[in-house]
Amino acid sequence: MDLDARLDLLADAARYDLCASLAPPGRRFTSRTAAGAALDDGGTTRRAQPLFRVLTSSICNWNCAYCPLRAASDGPRASLEPEELAAAFLPRYHAGAVQGLFVATAVHDDVGAAIGRMLDGVETLRVKHAYDGYVHIKLLPGVSFSDLERAARLADRLSLNLEAPSAEHLRRISPERQWHTDLIERLRWAREWQRTGGLPAGMATQFVVGAAGEHDRDLLATSAWLYREPGLRRIYFGAFQPIPGTPLAETPPTPLVRVRRLQQADWMLRSYGFSPAELPFDATGNLPLHLDPKLAWAMVNPDCFPVELNTADPEQLLRVPGLGSLSVARIVRLRQLHPFSQVAPPHQPWLACGPRARLCHPRWTLLRANARRTGAPLCTSAPC
Fold first, then answer.
1. Residues 31 and 155 reside in one and the same domain
2. Does residue 36 surpass a pLDDT of 60?
3. Which end of the chain is more exposed for a tag (fewer CB within 10 A), N or C?
4. Are residues 297 and 249 in the same domain?
5. 61, 113 contact by CB (below 8 A)
6. Do strands 100-104 and 234-239 pair parallel, antiparallel, or not at all (unpaired)?
7. Residue 117's domain is classified under what CATH number?
């Protein structure tokens, strides 16, 4: 099989690694185009970068229940030699079609051998070809300390996919992986490199949403812990999609709107100062699908609004529906030049200028009436 044909297989298999779930739509490699790709957040700049995204091997010895590359699945497999990774990536990089590399591998032979071959390819780029651009390396569960250290020296970002929010959930879909020893312990090893500045774009992980029967509360409680303890920079959420020929082939697919709500709630944890206890879970431990979670939180916490636009702390403003970090920074800067005198209509239920009576947003009345009619609460969350 020639290089282009193998790249078609290996780039297609890499699409399951969501290194860019929140970035604008991008390109993915095909042998008939000049570019590879997907998008990543570009580390600390938060700018999307088109990445050449590829596996160095799709040959796998494991049998994860959700994975199309599981050992028991039929289908063509392929792998790249270290120099072939450079031959595939560098022409596209020099042509400006891509700005960085995302590289991963299946468990070909064993974890150590598979990671070793992948890192040989990245090292060839760094040393032999003097490539000094962005590299995101996805490690395998059970990676050795020496291989993790080697990867940290080569990469701008490392990721290690947890796939599920707990050991119990992980056993249901990937019995080969040990939650504490193969995953959490390795994240703690990588944390030391991040703390010393060895990983400028930090660490990341991914969950397969819906594969293990978990609830949103499980995913977001684990996410908050991962940000706090191992110090992860990003967590990605991928919607489970059943693959024919796998044990989960008859499991319903996860709605994309659920993933979107998890991404929004993750942003609340990571950037807006919310705690897991404040998130608006329903009685089943899931987020409402019909509402943005920040708006859902605001609706069940009317005593927190309206927020005084000219005097509120940035932390208070970040809790206002429709305001993000950039908007809040702009508000703080502008009100130092001149106080605001009025609030635009879309924000009137949440913001006020000067003394003002508490408002009752009409949607609160509608949703509460519906909750009384059905007997189910809209959601539950801690007060502000």
1. yes
2. no
3. N
4. no
5. no
6. unpaired
7. 3.20.20.70
- Of 223, 254, 285, which residue is a domain's last? 254
CA nearest to 163, candidates 219, 216, 221 = 219
CA distance 300 to 196: 42
Helix (H, G, I), strand (E, B) or coil at 207: strand
Q: What is the distance between the alpha carbons of residues 280 and 265, in angstroms, rounded to a whole number?
A: 9
Q: DSSP class of residue 251?
A: S
Answer with the one of 192, 225, 254 that is the final residue of a domain.
254
Name the domain count of the chain: 2
157 lies in the same domain as 237: yes
CB 104 within 8 A of CB 40: no
**What is the spatial distance between Cα 310 and Cα 332, in angstroms, rounded to a whole number?**
8
Task: Kindly state the tokens that stand for 87.
Answer: 């031959």
Task: Name the strand (E) or helix (H) holding 135.
Answer: strand 134-138
How many alpha carbons lie under 13 Å from residue 47 in its C-beta half-sphere?
5
What is the Cα–Cα distance from 272 to 383, expressed in whole angstroms? 15
The predicted pLDDT at position 154 comes to 97
**CA dist., res. 217 & res. 199, Å (int):** 29
- 10 Å CB burial of residue 271 (0-12, 13-18, 19+) is exposed
**Within-domain flag for 277:** no
Identify the domain containing residue 340 by its residue range: 293-374
For residues 61 and 175, membership in a common domain is answered with yes
> Which band of pLDDT confidence, cut at 50, 70 and 90, is reported for residue 20?
very low
The model's pTM: 0.84
CB 59 within 8 A of CB 68: no
- C-beta separation of 169 from 64 below 8 A: no
Q: Among the ranges 49-53, 70-74, 105-109, 224-228, which has the highest mean pLDDT value?
A: 224-228
In this structure, how many other beta carbons lie within 10 angstroms of the beta carbon of residue 367?
20
Based on the fold, state whether residues 138 and 244 are members of the same structural domain.
yes
Classify residue 311: in a domain, yes or no: yes
In a domain, 379, yes or no: no
Sheet containing 134-138, strands listed edge to edge, beginning at the edge strand earlier in sequence: 38-40, 49-55, 100-104, 134-138, 157-159, 203-209, 234-239
Judgement on whether residues 225 and 338 belong to the same structural domain of the protein: no
Q: Is residue 282 part of a domain?
A: no
Q: In terms of domains, do 230 and 310 share one?
A: no
